[in-house]
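for the writeup, i need someone to sanity check this before i put it in the appendix. the sequnce is what the collaborator sent (i think, or maybe the updated version? ugh). structure was predicted straight from it, no edits. if anything looks off just tell me and ill rerun, i have time this weekend
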Amino acid sequence: MDGPRLNERRSEVLVETLRKFLQRDARANISKLLGRIRPADVAGLLRSLGRDEQLEVFRILTHDFPEGAGEALTEMEPPQRLALLERLEAEEIAAVLERLAVDDAVFLVESLPEELHVKVLSLVDLRNLTDVQTHLAYRDDTAGRIMSLEYFALPETATAREAIAAIQEQSDAEMIFYLYVVDGEGHLVGVTSLRQLLLSSPDRTLSSFMTRATIKVHTDTDQEEVAQLAARYDLLAIPVTDDGNHLVGIVTVDDIVDVVKEEATEDLLKMAGTSEEELLYERRSLRIARLRLPSVLVSMVGLLVTGLLLQNFQAEMGKALFLLAFVPVVMGLGGSIGGQASTVTVRGLASGRIGRDDRPIRTFLGQQLRVGAILGAACAALVGVAAGAMTANVAAGLTVGGAVFVALVVAAIAGAVVPLSFQKLGIDPAVASGPLLSTVTDITGILIYYGLAAWLLLRLGG
């Protein structure tokens, strides 16, 4: 299966052609057409077909191009992939898994909802897919789960000539830009590049010119950390070792790109108060509502608490009802500034920029405090002037402006501190950037606003 990337116009033509072939039951023509298209592009074409058409085309693809069928399946969007898998027979799914690379098969199994996940796992056990079973034994979101077993390694005693000859005979290795070097017991002892190998004297042993300071990860290393290492050192692959430093696999750049996309999507959805599972059920409104309900309830509880606080302060400050007019300002600006700080913090933690030696957490928090103070001062000045003009009372303007300033500075700090605290507790920091953060900034904002306003009014004689 080969061919250039499909442009939009060609894709439309191919979809229409496939439909005509399906109507005529021209199976041979469909097979011939699929054979000229890349698997990733086949996935794009399947998205444009109806569900019955998808199933029929995919079954032809599975029969005639089994390797391409698995790759096309992994390239499909989660909802389309789920809808297709739910309609396939158990034996058909098992046949696809058998043809896939181990890391891709594991990805496919892991992308399934619970009920289908259990069904496919039973197929894995039934077919005795040992490599897939081994991968699934590693913890979720770790290097062991996403590593490829198709790596290339040679003993340190091999010469450059022998290494080149071995590479020429190698057909299964997924990444040969790096040649990993092991000792007699399979321990990873070094790495060299293909360029260095070609430039070395044919009779030199690998141990004489390999790089011993190898960047590697453990099978239990979090996949996000693997992606950070690859980005920091511009690596196309990272070797994976077990507890005994034995080389057991590699994480390649295509898997690293998938990790970056997956982590970014996961963070974005968590910040919105939902989860990745929503992507699987885009046509099931009740299921999606159940996923979103917890975050909505958190927001509702926060707003109820805020309402009770407003009622309490209103009873105590009946003479200063003008303060109520600026409550939406405090809540809106506090949520906005806190959300900005939280988003920057979550992405900084995810990318590894926060917490490194060149940017310790203390420095980052100091910057967020200064930024919050600048924004708070600017907003407080404008709101204070507005309050003074509306009430014709300088004390009222100073009261509102001062309270707004402190509330916004606290919101900025909360936006940075809450995600950092969550990470310390072992909770995904992205959770802190959704409804929970809004609740925290609303409650603290109202407490600070009214508490400080009451104190200032007494001092200023308002």
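The first helix runs from residue 8 to 23. The longest strand covers residues 188-193.
thx in advance!!
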